[in-house]
Amino acid sequence: MSDLYQSQRAMRNKRQAAMQRGVIAVLDVGSSKIACFVLRFDGPDRFMEDEGIGSMAGQSSFRVIGAATTRSRGVKFGEISAMHETERAIRTAVQAAQKMANVRVDHVIVSFSGARPRSYGLAGKVDLHDGTVTDNCVARVLASCDLPDYGAEREILHAQPVNFSVDHRSGLGDPRGQAGNDLSVDMHMLSVDRTPVENLLYCIKRCDLDLAGLASSAYASGISSLVEDEQELGAACIDLGGGSTGLSIFMKKHMIFSDTVRMGGDHVTSDISQGLQIPLSLAERIKTFYGGVRATGMDDREMIDLSSDTGDWEHDRRTVSRSELIGVMRPRMEEILEEVRGLLDAAGFDHLPSQRIVLTGGGSQIPGLDGLATKILGQQVRLGRPLRVQGLPQSVTGPSFSSAVGTCLFAAHPQDEWWDFDVPMDSYPARSLKRAVRWFRDNW
Fold it and tell me: I need a surface site. Which of 107, 203, 278, 314 has the fewest CB within 10 A?
């Protein structure tokens, strides 16, 4: 655990240094596109961390002064599969964003999907020696959490205290200064496979960038797409990306569960390409212009031109009806949503006081998808766009930029993580723990 723990602390310090200089870049490395935004922090309040307030606080303390996106290359399932291609794509996006911002950026905060995330719920409890909660008590209670045996080939990406209790007073965001006899904490920990993360770090380094933070895309999408009361009362954000579909569940303004389905919009494109025997580029265009998941009688009559120039006259002059296209797309979208439903059930989502579901990401724009999702997930589903942040060009405000915008919010106001406290690192009992959401029933 110590490697990433130490490097996370180092990254936090780099973020502080970058914010004092006033500019930082965020990079969202996805399977279909790579987005880079350059943020400027202004004003005397830019160093103020809002005590006890989640990442929704003070969104106006920064503005986007540069934004660029480029087609992703060498990334599959949210993981790097061809280092040189990804490196080139990242350089392209970063240089274009710097040019627009007219400023050079050294530090970057990166969000990524993939790496097989896994959530754990941890709990710890300590006695208060002198009757009030101090910084030292917070560090001790975090150290008292039983760490799960999450595997030698995995690293901890997020480890956030989501609830403190003093005696029987629960739901405290910041317990410092409270009087009582004992302090307990609930913590959410997210572990990921080490190799994809190391590949990403290596790639960032090769681009001559200094890493100042790492975030899960699913987490970033939830921060930007769920409105405040959804984050407070309990909601799930489903980010339908190109190579994978991320799921994050929020409660009391904190992420309490995350997982991913290794399927996304690219798989739908691939199905269209194979089913209709057309090139991937044409399949992607047809999906974007004519795609859907619910066929009506009208769609039998709407014909789509599949003109191509292979030289085979019969093959080059084909048309298909829109309902045939929907017939190819729907089974894959159903499969993705069924997988998401399995994850929600495993997380115990139905135990939360509110069970709203928000669909975002580029794949959420397929017409009729919210209706299909409502049917399969059995909950009220709405389509989510990222929050508006200052200076963001109109072209990058759509649902496909949820994780990029969320990474901006994460950069400006990161929530407390384990490594922000001086946790004594002596000994951790390695006990296996239950998956994450269930402890909410008992502890909240």
Answer: 314
